């Protein structure tokens, strides 16, 4: 699994065929050689010598690779670079190993042409083309977080290889010839089947990623490196944060070596470590490779001595990670050199990249497809590198997202298992701490969640994921306490995150949510507008529309709802918001034309569905006088909401919504109206008198109206009108204006 060499000279006569390492496919090598225009291996040798600036041609290295001997991964990488292909595209896969062991033909016989694609069948082999995911496609997803929608419910070509005999066809072969042909056909059949499977696989699998062959690569450990009294050179690492990483390496090595911090700038024009070694300017050279994937970077470091290059460390960072965190990770990685210990197992390079590929899915909106793709990446990391914390952290995070989409509590149980496994491997990993924090947050354990986020931030104060998720967790606490100092802390965290990642749409999105919960609707609209500019997606547009509805800007609200609908034409909450818009405009039938198909779908699929949907459709039925339908819809909404309240998971808004629905059910059911019940409902309404968010104010005004206290109803309606005049224009409050009992409205 590790990608290091044994420290041998790569062109030494003492090198013997290795029993451990990675083997290259001879057929793939020949194919790549011809494609590159090389007629012989000698030309490949010359190319490597030219690329690396070697004084001595690496003939032994190329010969071993082309003979299919077990070599270290970097040897294959050097050959691959000369052939202008990816190293994993040359790896020998399990299907070829099986064929070689059973094939009696000499090794230099022409191979079957389909071998070049057989590697697609093996889980431990590499694709013919690395496909890194892009962000150009807008993912259509459900809400990754509780939304602000709550105020409103706010091709393949077939190939015919058959041969048909006709009257004018060739004469029939003799019996021996037929037998020979049948034998040859039987030999080819398995390979034809493989070809068909490969073609199907290419059509079905949307992306592949390189993985080291864990069954053949083994664990090749380098010996102790003596750096005392050695001249060490550091070559500048190119790419995002490359200068910071280079400087950190220099600072770590400056003490025990003669290295001068900043001297890497002198090597900017050097093409390879061997150039420095050959010129006797250094005894040892540290160089590196950096790959950017989404918000993250993967880095690996190499140590070069003579003609030998070995990998000594690999890891991943956020592009916005603090210098403190970079230095800590590099120190841990280079500690074996500094303390003269044998170089230990190194995180598998391709598994790290696949992990970041999975994390990249989380940068956009969530959808079932996106979450499953991320899970596939993380599962392959676990399979290829079971001792790497990253795969477990990724699976834990993905299962939490799946729970937010499906509300299936089993997902949280599975997530907990993966998080626990990752915690045992590397408890201080920021990835596992963030996954644990998000798991606790979704469970409603906000203090536990914050403790995990604080641990991640202790390691990396610039961890944007921890900053944003912790703000979400603290918002839930703020909804209960309304503590202004806590809101200042939330705002400060999000401002810091925005400075670190100004193009991350989730930061202004979260800032908008925070200001909404505070009651600053205009401020929330500003932040949601920023988020929508950074990412045109369902979440940003829908919540922007909800806020515009709140302030009474129905024209822009309708425009943003319609724009979101083009991205998410069947999303329940969005359709519900549009239906509420019709309701506010007095277009009750148009509202029902949207609500009722959703109700039918939820009924057929089972489960109560979103309580906001049931509650909103109940309001329409109530205003039309359909009492039985209204009661049933309210009861469906309450069956879900009661569960949340009883488990202690409900916030103030949900408690206020629950109270209003109980009061409305009581009013529509005279047989339930008793003095003790009414007294209890009034007591609950009094207990919510400190509520300040728009949803709660709306529900309290509605509750007191139907409890017969117009003064209190008007008091909460006026408070609502001051911050959310759009919600205050609800048909439910016509009675307060007309002094008569008018149509009622609850959201």
TrEMBL record:
Repeat (TPR) residue spans along the chain: 430-463, 538-571, 611-644
Basic and acidic residues: compositionally biased ranges: 154-166
Entries under PANTHER family matching the protein: UDP-N-ACETYLGLUCOSAMINE--PEPTIDE N-ACETYLGLUCOSAMINYLTRANSFERASE 110 KDA SUBUNIT (PTHR44366:SF1)
UniProt source species: Paraglaciecola mesophila
Keyword RNA-binding annotated: no
Cited InterPro entries: OGT, TPR-like_helical_dom_sf, TPR_rpt
Region (Disordered): 1-28, 99-184
Keywords: Membrane, TPR repeat, Transmembrane, Transmembrane helix
Matches recorded under Pfam families: TPR_8
Protein known as: Tetratricopeptide repeat protein
Keyword Transferase (UniProt): no
Polar residues bias (residue ranges): 1-13, 168-184
Transmembrane segments: 191-209
PROSITE patterns referenced in this protein's UniProt entry, alphabetically: TPR
Biased composition (Low complexity): 123-134
Domain of life: Bacteria
